[in-house]
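Methods — Computational structure assignment.
A single polypeptide chain was analysed. Its primary sequence is given first, followed by the predicted tertiary structure written as structure tokens.
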Amino acid sequence: MLSMAVPKRKTGKSKRNMRRAANSKYTAPGFVKCPQCHEPKLPHRVCPECGHYKNKEVVAQ
């Protein structure tokens, strides 16, 4: 019968906390004003209100 792998040593509090801290480094992207309609939008995305991206209309409204 095969057995499961078992850790040889206990994982210390410091290592455990360093592993868990990796998730707290991520932050939600902020909003920016659309240069055309001045509505808030996510950066580097087409404006959902007016359909502009980089001063060009890419989605016809």
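Note: Residues 13-21 form the longest helix (9 residues).
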